[in-house]
Write a structure and sequence with these properties.
The structure holds 2 protein chains of 2 kinds. By secondary structure, chain A is an all-alpha fold. In chain A, 70% of the residues lie in helices and 0% in strands. Classes of the chains: A mainly alpha, B mainly alpha.
């Protein structure tokens, strides 16, 4: 009997040591913004049958890496390599391109984001999302006087793809119209909101907050054109977020 | 023929009695927890992630069952001395090996069907994605595992059960890398090593020729002719390996 009690106590003490050790560890190790990202070729050569699974695993790592660093030190040094790895291993993974492109903006690499979307369009010529977001990126991060024209051309390309939403030609037309840069910016941020993931939506709301008037009625008027260039449900959701502060 | 059927039925019952179907329960639990977790971190790609990782889990669990059960099949009979009772009757050794393999095919079919149907229903229920390609992919995994089982049974006629298990897993891994062996043959400047790598390339099963998982997640459009050819190749491979196993087993003295 005594031996059994002693044995149970020893086991419990050991379990206590195990739990205490783990609990006393820092909840999160200081994350290094530079992480090792293998070359896509390595996985293509050594595990072709598992390449999509590896791409999916790295997509999850990429989302976590972005979420961890964007809210922390803001350093996203390895993000371009991660986006490249995921989209090379899984060239038809639309979400990875779009998430990667928006995340690369926070890494200060709008040029890489644009290239990533171009590559995505090359791999998926039947998907209107790519030219549509290329239009947004050309307008928002492009330079020079021709940026509106370039963006409009992308929207026209997107509109020509079967199955694309009918508001794309209106966006192209709005960009080609003279003046009204604020209105154009509002329409473009509305497009960023449509990317769907929480990070892109947050970015769109922040972007709109910067260009929208503070006065309630003026803000409502400024947002009205969004209903012509976005699905109604998304426009409602976006406007609700932009009026959160106005609700008592 | 009756002898083979009798051995197959007994093998099926024996392996099922070993609770291999518990693998389906473990798989189901992992997938349910994993599915919910993936839903919260994949930014709307839950269906894709569940299908892709689910098929990896089906492969992994299927491989474990295939290799460890196949490795023990012949050895168990020898250790328990039941093989002597069997061979005192007019049962050929080839029939014994064939019957054992067919029985194990039934068990694997039950295990993979359980996991495959559960995965299909879970993805349908959680992500609203009811792609029949998931079931096709499970069928292709089954065909791959038949080749692994045949190879493991062959090794079990040569050596111990543990060695057969290890070699079975090695052959699976080598099969995934077979195209690299082909690259080696092209690299070689030496005619002997080139010929040797070519022989190795032909001997190890080619598991990487068709990527079914990529088809399931919409990455590749599967060429059905290629899939049929690949399936035919693997089934022919199974026949050859089983014939070799029967040949080795026939020469074995107890």
């Amino acid at each position: 009997m005594l031996r059994r009690v002693v044995a149970i106590l020893v086991v419990l003490a050991c379990a206590g040591v195990v739990v205490a050790y783990q609990v006393s560890r820092p909840a999160r190790a200081p994350a290094d913004p530079r992480v090792f990202v293998p070359s896509p070729k390595f996985f293509q050569d050594f595990s072709p049958s598992f390449r999509t699974s590896i791409a999916d695993a790295y997509y999850l790592i990429m989302v976590q890496y972005y979420g961890e660093h964007v809210a922390g030190d803001g350093k996203l040094d390895s993000l371009p390599a991660m986006v490249d790895l995921v989209t090379t291993l899984s060239p038809h993974f639309t979400r990875a391109y779009l998430f990667g492109a928006f995340a690369l903006i926070d890494a200060g690499r709008a040029d890489v984001a644009y290239t990533v979307l171009q590559r995505g369009f090359k791999e998926n010529p039947g998907d209107w999302h790519f030219p549509a977001y290329l239009g947004f990126f050309a307008y928002r991060y492009g330079e020079g006087e021709t940026k509106n024209l370039v963006a409009a051309q992308w929207y026209e390309k997107a509109a020509a793809i079967p199955g694309s939403p009918d508001y794309l030609p209106r966006l192209a037309a709005a960009l080609l119209a003279k003046g009204g840069e604020e209105e154009k910016a509002i329409l473009m941020w509305g497009q960023a909101y449509l990317a769907g993931d929480k990070y892109a939506r947050k970015k769109a709301v922040e972007g709109l907050e910067r260009v929208l008037p503070k006065e309630k009625e003026a803000r409502m008027r400024a947002l009205a054109p969004l209903y012509e260039t976005m699905p109604e449900a998304d426009a409602n959701a976006l406007i609700a977020e932009l009026f959160k502060a106005y609700v008592q | 023929m009756n002898q083979i059927a009798a051995i197959a039925v007994n093998t099926f019952k024996e392996t099922i009695r070993d609770r291999v179907l518990a693998v389906i329960v473990v798989f189901a639990l992992i997938m349910i927890v994993g599915g919910l977790w993936l839903g919260s971190i994949s930014l709307g790609e839950q269906g894709r992630m569940m299908k892709d990782f689910g098929l990896v889990a089906v492969t992994f669990f299927g491989l474990i069952v295939a290799v460890f059960v196949a490795a023990g099949l012949v050895h168990k009979e020898v250790e328990k001395r039941t093989v002597f009772v069997l061979f005192s009757k007019p049962v050929s050794r080839a029939a014994f090996i064939t019957g054992k393999f067919i029985g194990l095919c039934g068990t694997m079919a039950a295990v993979l069907a359980g996991m495959g149907v559960f995965l299909f229903l879970l993805v349908w229920a959680v992500a609203g994605d009811a792609s029949g390609m998931t079931l096709v992919a499970v069928l292709m995994i089954y065909v791959q595992l038949l080749a692994v089982m045949a190879v493991t049974i062959f090794f079990s006629t040569l050596g111990s059960a543990i060695l057969a298990s290890v070699l079975g897993i090695c052959v699976y891994v080598a099969g995934q890398l077979s195209h690299n062996v082909l690259s080696l043959t092209r690299l070689g400047k030496n005619a002997v090593t080139e010929a040797l790598s070519w022989v190795v390339y032909v001997i190890i099963p080619n598991f990487s020729a068709v990527d079914v998982k990529a088809g399931v997640v919409g990455e590749d459009t599967l060429a059905w002719g290629q899939v049929a050819l690949w399936t035919g190749y693997l089934l022919a491979y199974v026949v050859v390996v089983l014939a070799l196993a029967a040949l080795v087993f026939r020469r074995k003295e107890f």
